[in-house]
Amino acid sequence: MNIKFYSIIILIAIFTTSGFSGNPDRQGQAGAAELLMNPWGRSAGLHSMSTSSAVGVEAMRINIAGLSRIKKMEIGISNNRLFSGSGMNLNAGAIGFKMGKSGALGVEFASLDFGQIPVTTTDQPNGTGGTFSPSFFQLGVGYSLTYANKISVGALVRFVSESIQDVNASGVAIDAGVQYVSGEKDNFKLGISLRNVGTPMSFGGEGLSQRRNNPKPDGGVIYELSYDSRAASFELPSMLNLGVSYDFYVGQDNFIRGLANFTSNAFSKDQIGAGAEFSFQNRFVIRGAYKYDIGSSDIETQGLYTGLSAGASVEVPITKGGANNLGIDYAYRASNPFKGSHNITVRFAF
Question: What H or E segment, with its residue span, contains residue 170?
């Protein structure tokens, strides 16, 4: 028990040191912002603040430590309609399965759909009649392990790719997390996750090259040379999440979960928030949360995802005894200045 306790202390020290190393002067300088988008309905309904309680495949986006708390296998597919009216969608799929009694391995992919964007040029600013669509793709592989049903730890490696016509960038991000549960019914939960720590990315490709006349033509012969433009590199949007929750039971299977979460962003304002969810008979759940950017004096300086979020889940048994379940999750998040985002997730638990 002492070894496990010291392990938690060491992990907290490592995560805290890394997560609070950001410089406020660098705010707004990170790229690959799609790493901050959450396609999963249960955690999205809590503004992605379920650091202490995220379980199953969606834990690969919030806190990888919760992956190992699945039964045997879980499969999830999700659609996130981003910023209503923008035509953008974030689609995701994931699978997690047990390895032995205490471990679990998971794979998650996500793709950002921008729709069809008109092609414009300096000579034809109203459009050429053609369209294009950028390709933003992520693929993550993670592993989680639970000790004595009390302490879970995990790590995930995520490949990130962004491309548009003849220009592309790629990088690798690493997530790590720990969860601790205690109490007669595991009422108290503590979670820490460090996300999106990885290699800088930079764009390159034929799209950044230009053809220009040779500035010093020999013998008066004019010919063209190809010049490459070097794009500046950018960092990934790393963050540290600290979360805590407590379940207040009303009867045998009904409970109200209160939670609080703090997020330290290396390249944007820190955030704090709280939420609650009510679970009835482990079959129906409603939830809501509020998140606030620390240091924002008015609504115009708030981040994109601040304010209120809400959602609901339904768990339907598909076999006798409830060993296999079908879960459907919905979430809505207010966004500034857009009309909000909608998440729909379908999960199969075996």
Answer: strand 167-182
